[in-house]
Specification:
Distance between the termini: 150 Å
CATH class of the largest domain: Alpha Beta
Shape: rod-shaped
Order of helices and strands: HHHEEHEHEEHEEE
Number of strands: 8
Strand content: 5-15%
CATH superfamily of the largest domain: Mannose-Binding Protein A, subunit A
Structural class: alpha+beta
Length: 346
């Protein structure tokens, strides 16, 4: 008889099964030996006396029975060992399996909870990021609109500045001409100053060549002295070039005079007036810087472009146009197919 090995688990069960098979083989061999002994006993019975035979047989049988009892005991012990080892292995397997299942279930539950928490956290983060992006987009859109508005204002101011610079450059270029002309006409200037102070009638004033008189005012008509169609700014410069200033209508009679001059020029003609809102949109002023709104409201305006309805942003300068029944309207100051404004010496 050999004891079970120290292994546990399934390896121990296999060893026990192998051992039991070995014992069964031994039992089979023992039975075969018993059969051989019985046959030998029969042979001895034929050749030996009864007492000797019986004694020999009983001895052999006793030894054999002893071996059988020993084998039975070993087999029973082995079966018990196999049963115990198998039961222990199954219990261990069941316990380990139960623990593993519980561990896996706990891990899955924890993982599921973490996954849910992570999902909620990710969704919150995405929502916050989307809100931040939306706020940034709205801010960029607002800044873009502000920049566009400022760009338009800068462009308008730049254009106005260019016009002013052009006027100043023209004035500077013509200073050499104006100054000698004024010096040459110094006698006339002195006479005019004297006439104003003493309220002498215009008939006593000297009227320069090319000029004419209107209601005690010395004026230069648009077509006089080689006059040609000009832009609004060039029209102002023309007056300065001849030692005069733009003619500003002070009442309805003055406006009717401008209408008559325009009609005399011919069909389809137009004359600039010394009024514009280039400095501030919607605030129309004369070239001397005084407000023009009160006087202009007394005059006839085109129904689609009336003074009270104001004017478009790119139409800042006033003119009277034959095609519109000699009524006033606003046009772009750069328009160059209108006759220059009437000038006067003051």
């Amino acid at each position: 008889y050999t004891s079970l090995p120290a292994e546990t688990g399934f390896d121990s069960v296999l060893y026990c099964l192998r051992y039991q098979l070995t014992m069964l083989i031994k039992l089979f061999l023992s039975l075969a030996l018993l059969n051989l002994l019985i046959g030998s006993g029969q042979c001895l019975e034929d050749n030996t006396s009864e007492p000797e035979y019986s004694s020999a047989v009983r001895g052999v049988i006793h030894e054999f029975v002893t071996v059988l009892h020993s084998m039975q005991s070993d087999t029973s012990e082995n079966i018990k060992s196999i049963h115990i080892a198998t039961s222990e292995y199954l219990r261990n397997m069941q316990s380990a399996t139960s623990v593993n299942i519980q561990t896996v279930m706990s891990a899955l539950s924890l993982q599921s909870a973490n996954t849910d928490a992570n999902s909620v956290s990710i969704i919150d983060t995405v929502d916050k990021n989307n809100q931040i992006l939306q706020n940034h987009s709205e801010l960029l859109s607002s800044q873009s609109e502000l920049l566009s508005s400022q760009s338009n204002e800068i462009s308008s101011l730049k254009e106005t500045l260019e016009n002013i610079n052009n006027v100043l450059a023209e004035i500077k270029n013509n200073t050499a001409y104006i100054k000698p002309n004024m010096e040459a006409n110094n006698e006339t200037t002195v006479m005019l100053d004297s006439d104003i102070e003493s309220n002498i009638d215009i008939s006593h004033k000297a009227v320069p060549s090319g000029f004419t008189s209107y209601n005690d005012r010395i004026v230069l008509l648009p077509t006089a002295l080689g006059g040609t169609m000009l832009t609004w700014s060039d029209s102002v410069i023309r007056c300065l070039h001849h030692g005069a200033v733009p003619f500003i209508p002070k009442n309805v009679d003055d406006f009717k005079y401008i209408q008559q001059v325009n009609s005399d020029i011919g069909s389809g003609a137009g004359i600039w007036l010394p009024a514009s809102d280039q400095g501030e949109e919607g605030v129309t002023k004369w070239t001397d810087g005084t407000d023009a709104s009160t006087t202009l409201k007394l005059f006839d305006w085109m129904s689609s472009n009336g003074y009270t309805a104001n004017n478009a942003e790119d139409q800042d300068c006033v003119n009277v146009w034959t095609a519109s029944d000699n009524k006033l309207e606003y046009d772009p100051c750069t328009r160059n197919n209108l006759w220059p404004m009437i000038c006067e010496i003051i």
